[in-house]
Design brief:
Blueprint (H helix, E strand, L loop, with lengths): L1 H23 L15 E12 L3 E7 L8 E5 L4 E11 L4 E17 L1 H6 L8 E17 L8 E19 L1 H9 L2 E7 L2 E13 L6 E10 L2 E10 L11 E9 L3 E12 L1
Antiparallel strand pairs: 1-4, 1-13, 2-3, 2-12, 4-5, 5-6, 6-7, 7-9, 8-11, 9-10, 10-13, 11-12
């Protein structure tokens, strides 16, 4: 009993010292804490392929009554554009992405129903109008695989803003109207909607910062289309003035397919 009372106060500090040296490693110093996890960012650029929706729409006249309107189909052709995006990977499995896609020279539409309405049944044209469609997106993306994998698929949901610009009737339509002393005006509104995407990043190696990206994006975009046809030169008699104005809602709703390269970095 006496020996126990003597050795316990002596051995307790000795055991604490030995355990401290063992945890400190061969050098005898405590290992430094692990470095804080760096924030990862990705910048991508590439090409985009637009596949717009074909929509059968009803144009109404300026009074809003359909009996003075007509139905027609808007079917813009598929077109190429370009894209740029920035991604912030907040965690190993979630990221936030801002994307801009530039789309130009969309063409579509049929003149047949309108010219039948205004008494010009022999005028037949396709792809009567053209416009630019620029899309901006904000996505939240989820990556299901471990970040060490060289192939990183992801899915994302978000919002989009579609900006329509440079809308006009094509040159041959304007020339046809000019033959009848008429001029024209075409306008498309901008739109907000939802969007979702599915994509994949392919890394060239664990130590490489370069990646290849492919993604498919569905964009919900409903916009209003308005156009008018009127006399190029005002007539002397106001009662002889020709003016027709129509409006409709068009579901643009394109599928967009991206293919590009990216560079990832951290700090």
């Amino acid at each position: 009993m006496k020996m126990t009372r003597i050795f316990v106060p002596v051995l307790a500090p000795l055991a604490l010292a030995v355990s401290s040296v063992a945890s400190a490693g061969p050098s005898g110093y405590a290992p430094p804490p692990p470095p804080p996890k760096k924030q990862e960012f990705i910048v991508r650029v590439g090409a985009s392929y637009f596949h717009p929706n074909t929509d059968r729409i009803a144009f109404l006249d300026e009074t809003g009554f359909f009996f003075d309107g007509f139905r027609t189909t808007l079917d813009p052709d598929d077109e190429w554009g370009w894209n740029i995006s920035g991604v912030w990977k907040a965690t190993d499995h979630f990221s936030f992405e801002l994307m801009y896609i530039d789309g130009t020279d969309m063409r579509g539409g049929s003149t047949d129903p309108f010219f039948d309405l205004v008494g010009l049944p022999d005028v037949r044209r396709r792809n009567l109008a053209e416009f630019d469609a620029d899309a901006s997106y904000a996505f939240a993306n989820w990556y299901p695989l471990h970040p060490s994998c060289l192939i990183q698929p992801y899915v994302g949901v978000g919002l989009n803003y579609m900006d329509f610009s440079s809308e006009k009737f094509r040159g041959f339509v304007r020339r046809d109207l000019d033959d009848f002393g008429l001029d024209s005006d075409l306008n498309m509104g901008n739109s907000w909607g939802y969007a979702w995407q599915i994509g994949v990043d392919f890394a060239f190696g664990h130590d490489s910062a370069w990646i290849i990206n492919a993604a498919a994006i569905y964009t919900d975009s409903e916009t209003d289309v308005a156009f008018s046809v009127f006399d190029r030169e005002p007539p002397l008699d106001p009662d002889d003035r020709f003016f027709e104005a129509y409006g409709a809602d068009y579901n643009f709703n394109p599928w967009i397919f991206n293919l590009g390269v990216g560079y990832k970095f951290a700090f």
